[in-house]
Amino acid sequence: MGPMVLRGTVTKVGAMQKTATVTVWRWVVHRKTQKRIELSKKYLTHDPENKLHLEDEVEIINCRPISARKRFTLHNVIRSTVLEREARHEQLEREKASLAKASGSDDSSQSSRILKDALSGWQKEETPRPAETTS
């Protein structure tokens, strides 16, 4: 049997050295009702460089047993939330610098306002609660 490559999301990091918990989701058709059911399974994954962060999307591959429950190792990081955040922050800093250069002056209040507006889109927005009605 060849190597199994599974794709999942990192759900737990930092509890053990060089180990991350990866949750893999899959769809199964129920035998009687023929409805699709989403099943998940958690795998302990060997991360030798401790480079995984929470909510990263990764590919893991089976390997020889590393410990009692660890049978998979990190194969590929597909999407890293921390790297995306850093890249977005660098892009905003470049935009801020170009706007300051274009305006001809280093107006810190204007550039900080532009940076705040750009960052506010990345923060979690709270949905307003509907007004309570009394009957």
Automatic annotation (TrEMBL):
UniProt xrefs under PANTHER family: 40S RIBOSOMAL PROTEIN S11 FAMILY MEMBER (PTHR10744), SMALL RIBOSOMAL SUBUNIT PROTEIN US17M (PTHR10744:SF1)
One GO biological process term? translation
Q: What is an example of a GO molecular function annotated in this UniProt entry?
A: structural constituent of ribosome
Q: What is this protein called?
A: Nucleic acid-binding protein
Please provide, in alphabetical order, the Gene Ontology terms of the cellular component aspect for this entry.
mitochondrion; ribonucleoprotein complex; ribosome
Q: Which organism is it from?
A: Sistotremastrum niveocremeum HHB9708
UniProt biased composition (Basic and acidic residues):
89-98
Pfam hit, one:
Ribosomal_S17
List the biased-composition ranges (Low complexity): 103-112
**What keywords does the record list, in alphabetical order?**
Ribonucleoprotein, Ribosomal protein
Per the record, the similarity remark reads: Belongs to the universal ribosomal protein uS17 family.
InterPro entries per the UniProt record, alphabetical? NA-bd_OB-fold, Ribosomal_uS17
> Could you name the domain of life of the organism this protein comes from?
Eukaryota
Return the annotated region ranges for Disordered: 89-135
